[in-house]
């Protein structure tokens, strides 16, 4: 993710791990649709359209609030609203979360980002992570958590942490946004984590951008920014143990949203068609189709708004029409 340096000042509604604040709403049960569009909502201003949560396009079924903040306790996170967004209070934000949920959307808290510094690499940090996420879910009513750690991940302890979250919130929505290289093999730590929580994992939306050329599931090298790149790399996950409903295609919402790998929405839709129905493929065609594919993701709803909402309308519209 193209994260910005988050503002240290702001409206803090506290979770556990040493922060203060009253306990707010308990997270409610969410129902993610079979085919879903995920979008990251920026809790900062980096030149994209500044949005309140209520401004996020209705096409987005899962909204990942980016990002949680690390605390002084290893593995623990908290959440701070950036003043740039214009919220008068944390309660106003929580009201927006409830409104999105009332409209059938899921709102999850994303941990990580390009500059994220959260490390879960032992039992203590795993417990701190789980306790803080559980507390923030109860406080804000978040439906779950998104794992977007781009500076390393320990599958043993992240799996342990996420299972502890699931134990407290059985209906938790868990999404992931690994970088492309992190999902090239089931032996990679991110992939192992996804498989370790397969019984309750919602979706892995791999960032198919900012990566350069990569090997597809057929062993051939494909360049980013092509339909073959998307389909051949998604194939690795689909054939590596994840259910099709747990696989999504992550792309930038505009050329400004990433350093490389932006594609026109029509290319995303072609990849979705190729994987789900075997049509509109490039030179790579999967040996079988995956009609249960979850959908697509974009960084970010803000960059999408700055780009006229093309991802929401074109890719979102296509995702929602998948059989």
Automatic annotation (TrEMBL):
Its EC number is 3.2.1.14. Residues 1-22 form the signal peptide. Coiled coil: none annotated. CDD domains: GH18_chitinase_D-like. The keyword Manganese does not apply. It comes from the Bacteria. Pfam families: Glyco_hydro_18 (PF00704). Keywords: Glycosidase, Hydrolase, Signal. Residues 35-323 form the GH18 domain. PANTHER family: ENDOCHITINASE. Belongs to the glycosyl hydrolase 18 family. This is chitinase.
């Amino acid at each position: 993710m193209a994260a910005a340096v988050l503002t240290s000042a702001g409206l803090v509604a506290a979770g556990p791990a040493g922060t203060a604040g009253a306990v707010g709403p308990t997270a409610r049960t969410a129902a993610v649709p079979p085919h879903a569009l995920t979008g990251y909502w920026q809790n900062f201003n980096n030149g994209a359209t500044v949005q309140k949560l209520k401004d996020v396009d209705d096409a987005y079924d899962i909204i990942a609030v980016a990002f949680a903040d690390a605390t002084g306790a290893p593995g623990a996170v908290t959440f701070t609203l950036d003043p740039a967004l214009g919220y008068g209070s944390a309660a106003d934000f929580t009201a927006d979360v409830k409104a999105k949920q009332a409209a059938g959307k899921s709102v999850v808290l994303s941990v990580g980002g390009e500059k994220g510094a959260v490390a879960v690499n032992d039992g203590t940090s795993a417990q701190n992570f789980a306790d803080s996420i559980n507390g923030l879910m109860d406080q804000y009513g978040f439906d779950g958590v998104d794992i977007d750690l781009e500076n390393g991940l320990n599958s043993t302890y992240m799996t342990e942490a996420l299972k502890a979250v699931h134990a407290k919130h059985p209906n938790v929505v868990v999404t992931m946004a690994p970088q492309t290289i992190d999902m090239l093999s089931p032996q990679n730590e991110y992939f192992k984590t996804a498989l370790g929580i397969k019984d309750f994992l919602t979706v892995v939306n791999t960032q198919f951008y900012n990566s350069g050329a990569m090997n597809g599931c057929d062993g051939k090298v494909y360049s980013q920014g092509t339909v073959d790149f998307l389909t051949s790399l998604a194939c690795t996950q689909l054939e590596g143990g994840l259910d099709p409903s747990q696989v999504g295609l992550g792309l930038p919402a505009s050329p400004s949203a990433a350093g490389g790998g932006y594609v026109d929405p029509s290319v995303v839709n072609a990849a979705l068609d190729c994987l789900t129905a075997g049509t509109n493929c490039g030179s790579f065609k999967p040996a079988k189709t995956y009609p249960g594919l979850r959908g697509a993701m974009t960084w970010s709803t803000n960059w999408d708004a700055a780009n006229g909402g093309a991802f929401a309308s074109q890719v979102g519209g296509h995702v929602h029409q998948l059989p």
